[in-house]
Amino acid sequence: MVETTAAAARARAGIDIGGTFTDIAIEANGVVHSAKVLTDRERPERGVLQGLQAAARTAGVAPGELALLIHGTTLATNALIERRGARAGFVTTRGFRDVLEMRTESRFEQYDLNIQLPPALVPRIDRLTLAERIDAQGRVLVAPEQSEIEALCATIEERGYASVAIGFIHSYMNDAHEQRMREALAKRLPGLEISISSEVSPQMREYERFNTVCANAYVKPLIKSYLRRLVDELGAIGVGCPLFLMHSGGGIIGVESAAEFPVRLVESGPAGGAVFAADIARRYGLDRVLSYDMGGTTAKICLIEQQTPKTARTFEVARTWRFKKGSGMPISIPVVEMVEIGAGGGSIASVDLMGRIRVGPRSAGSEPGPACYGRGGSEPTVTDADLLLGRIDPHDFAGGSMTLDSAAANGAVERAVGAPLGLDGEAASYGIAEMVDENMANAGRVHAVENGKELADFTMICFGGAGPLHAARLCEKMGIDRFLVPPGAGVGSAIGFLRAPFGYESVRSRLTPLHDFDADAVNALLDAMRAEAAAFVAQGGGDAEQLTECTAYMRYAGQGWEIPVAIEPGGYAAGDERKVARAFAEAYTRFFGRPVEGAMIEIVSFALKVATRLPPTPTLELAREGRPARPRGSRRLFEPGEGRFVDAAVFARDALEAGAELAGPAVVVEDETATILTTGSLAVVQADGCLLVLRRKGEG
Amino acid sequence: MAKGLDDIHMQVMWNRLISVVEEQALTLVRTAFSTSVREAGDLSAGVFDVAGRMLAQAVTGTPGHVNAMAESVGHFITDIGPGNILENDVYITNDPWKGTGHLHDVTVVTPVFRKRALIGYFACTAHVVDVGGRGFGPDGRDVHEEGLFIPIMKLFREGAVNRDLILIVRANVREADKVVGDLYALAACNETGMKRLFAMMDEFGFDDLDGIGSFILERSDRATRALIAELPRGRHTNAMTLDGYDEPVHLAVTLEIEEDRIKADFTGTSEVSRWGINVPLVYCKAYACYGLKCVVAPEIPNNAASLAPFEISAPPGCILNAEPPAPVSVRHVLGHFVPDLVMGALAGALPDRVPAEGSGALWNIQFSVRPLPSNTTGRPAEMLLFNSGGTGARPTLDGLNATAFPSGVMTMPAEATEQVGPLVVWRKELRDGSGGAGRHRGGLGQVIEIAAANGYEIAFNAMFDRTNHPARGRKGGRPGRAGTVGLDDGTKLAPKGRQSVPVGRRLVLGMPGGGGHGDPRERAPASIEADLAHDYIEAAQRADYEPRN
Fold first, then answer.
1. Whole domain around residue A219: which residue ranges?
2. pLDDT one-digit tens code per residue, A286-305
3. The B446-452 sheet, strands edge to edge
4. A574 and A524 belong to one structural domain
5. pTM, two decimal places
6. Which of A95, A141, A592 has its CB closest to that of B449?
7. Is B260 exposed, middle or buried (0-12, 13-18, 19+ CB in 10 A)?
8. What is the ipTM of this complex?
9. I want to staple A460 with a disulfide (CB 3.0 to 4.6 A). Which of A275, A483, B454, B506 is the partner?
10. pLDDT digit string (tens) for B333-346?
11. Residues of B in contact with A110 (CB under 8 A)
């Protein structure tokens, strides 16, 4: 206890508000203490305070002793999914009133005549237009009349919008008209929240940019007032340290920036999970990692190379139709890129017209939950199948806090899947597990193809309540030879927040054909981007050393898909385009096998990331063998490779010491999940508590 | 348990095979130069057994390739000749009658050998940027005017590229680099499929497609025929009149729903046109199957067995069964109406499942942009834009505004269009009041206004329909508004053929709305008020929804 004060001086807290739980992780003196409380949907800050105080007590730290808080939240995401945002107005270019509503003019499902497209965030009546126009090169074609701007301001005042978005065509090339409209509005309506597209998302493609600025305007009043209440209440319990927020790109920004650009908070929780996995990768010096997070409703997969989660410039949120690509809305901001599929413990299994087992995306959620929960769920879920296959012990679930009903699980599985196919409950369960693993493996493989990667030499880092139950089979299907299950996986995102750099990525579209490369113009653009990003980083990172990385999104002129190419973040001179062209040709070859001879090359967008350098972590060697550990007991476990039940050893994870070696078939049980080892595989407990699972002894 | 596990393994492999062809298609989308492939998903990819029967196909942007590509592999086997199919070969054609309906679609087929034995084929199809001739438009008088015709032949002979063919292609097309790039992309896409198939065969331990093939085909056949057996048997007809090029075109269909099949015959349809709006039978079949499947068996994946119960025929020489050397460049225009035509007949049997008619054909515009003589630094550009009208109202839902049906393609953002070439899109928004009145309202069309950028002039190939024949409503629903083609000064232009836009003027297209479904007087008052508030309908249209005395 003597050391408390010294420890507290460095104590930092990660706070993750999810849809169901609010997780807190406090790190003090190198040890992580966590707490998990139910999310308070009305007043999320109450859950945060409750969890923070609980974790602080465990850690022996007073709230006033915390040195830093880092927060991520699904509040913005949920407001978009549940349409609980503000009534917002949208001012756009005359002739483009319906960009938000016309979307891509396509159907996300080819054969369903009854699909419904998600309604626009801002309905037609609230979309106003201004006669103005800028061309693709940023030149003014039509300058707006001041009188019309004033008339629009009057309409907006009269309608009483809480928040207004402004998005004009080609404003990513020239923001003058958006600025003029904003100034006029701010002058007339000083309290009004205004978001402009050239600041929120200066990227080409009007549907994505307009939707992003409208999403920002839509969630801004809600997030701003939440953050204000949180800061006040934290102050009231004596927290005096600064609050920072995790953003979707895997970095951290200040609370003021977050309140101004709340759309950047979308997907901050999953980003934290990816940062958590990246930190494990860094610790072991692993350059090629796939993070895999499987919870109750969905599974998320992210590529992490050179210890950096892969990022993209745009993503889709709030899918409304069976997680189908295209059924949500695009958000164009830098984001940790993940594939998310409707496959989780609660995913419901059924049999289709061709006698094929289908799993998800429909989920039983936590209420009524899987049949085995005995809360009225009658449809079979992945958790029910896992139970019948021996992966879950009915008497030792969630740390023994709940006894599962195997008979109910068996009844549900036999009724909905077994009977139509003439299978018993166990064979049907095997079918359900195979299908869900197959779906995840297919999504992972396609994601790898999209990024020009082969998964064979990757290491999987898995977490989430259902992740370790399925990791072994999933790895077999993806051809991956080893996976790691880190400790603390149940609050992975909150821990991840503590590992994130202060970082910000600026993205700008600027079509730059290499045969027309203007070194001065590119330097000026990159300098402006660096200044923007560095200002964000300085808010939290202070004088810490900053790293700058630049990515050009490039293609052959005429193609529609750009690939990321790492380039120098500035200092270009005439003739340097040849270097850029060479880098592109190399990247293209990595993706697609061979370059295209003679075609012209162009840069479409630039992304410039500034981040503080992370403190060096000692690189640990992965221990591949150890001393055999004694199992706690044994249980009947289905072995998918052999197609039969075998006797599997059972180990309690918290009783295993570093250096323990376990041989499959086995189950390693912990409170929130269990890790399954298949026959022939081997697990070794690492010095930091991570469980390394190798497909066969001596491999990996 | 063993028998049950075998079944599960087969299901897993079926899933995997679909994933294999999805990866195959994705490779093509990422590497293609053709706008319609990358932006619009105008491509197809699939795997076939050794007899040329399609086992799995990627779900992509265009149903038009579905059945068409499914049949093409049989032609390749016949024309290359069984003894001449060798390891590391790759075959090619753009034969409209053996491929997918016009010269712009190139189909590439790769035989798959495992342990020296031929076990199946991968095939893919994509719309390439150019094939020479007159370019993408309806003005050719025969297929020879429409561009370079590549009969079924080898693109690679045992791994060596056919240089003669590449030279001929280069000499005959505009933008040769992009077209040749696309040929390589097609071959690479089959290679990806093959690599994934081999990995799957290694994992599951099998060396041919016989077992999994018969499992897929038996299950699909049984499921499709079971759904057909549930339908009331009978004979139903439908007919539809469209603008055509220089005279109206009449399409007619007779459906016979039998116990285990649906026959669709297009007797009564107009004769072939002198213009390139004609449709090879293979393309008509593709869209007929698509329309029938949407209503009858939407959840069954496409393969030889799930398509077989739909038997399609049309008299030779009618506009839906045009024979060589008829011009067929814009066969999509009439082809896109085939689903509404067959679904309209199906409405006789299934009145509660079939939507009203929609705008149908995409309003594709092929622009040629040229610098004016005073502009000495400008470069010419060829640009293809996709735009959609409204879909028909559904029995329980309004139609979709400005959304493609039956095509699944996406539009291009105006900002991307203007970055590619010297055009200015001045307006692209919903066309107020264009949806047909009904208990459920038809989807709205859109208005688009486009002009050349300063210093340029434009000509365009028009291929628009429903300017004189709007989408009809169903069950008392009213028709959608017809399409319009003109200039911003009110001048009317022709809906088909090549025309110029005078310097300083804008091209204005008003795309058709979808038909309404059900009596408009039964529409919920709150929906009518909302439609008025949002300008989906115009004030004068309120009368359409009020009791008529």
1. 86-223
2. 999 999 999 888 899 999 99
3. B423-430, B446-452, B507-510, B484-487
4. yes
5. 0.92
6. A95
7. exposed
8. 0.94
9. A483
10. 999 999 999 999 99
11. 59, 63, 408
